[in-house]
Protein: Large ribosomal subunit protein bL17
Amino acid sequence: MAYRKLGRDTSARKALFRSMLTSFFAYERIETTEAKAKEISGLADKMITLAKRGDLHARRQVLSSLYDEEVVKKLFDVIAPKYAERQGGYTRVLKLGPRRGDAAPMAIIELV
Structure:
């Protein structure tokens, strides 16, 4: 299998990723479990690559994956221009250690 199921069915997993991506681009860094951070990393890179294209079709594709139009505006107007010269690798996953409640491995995902 090429992806992590994270103990959820397809619709719940997609909703989780949409929510996390929206938060990620709004705050430019979030703390989550290691597995979720690794999954979000690839999706975030795809969104930034689309935003770098900057055309209407790319904007509509990104809008279908994110919840907040203000975040899409920020992605296209602020975040994407920062990475105009960069060829991929826009995110970084930093491992933190176990979570106190259930010892799940935690990580921070942030923009490079």
Observations:
- Residues 22 and 68 are 7 Å apart (CA to CA).
- The first helix runs from residue 10 to 27.
- Helices lie at 10-27, 34-53, 56-65, 69-82.
- The radius of gyration is 14 Å.
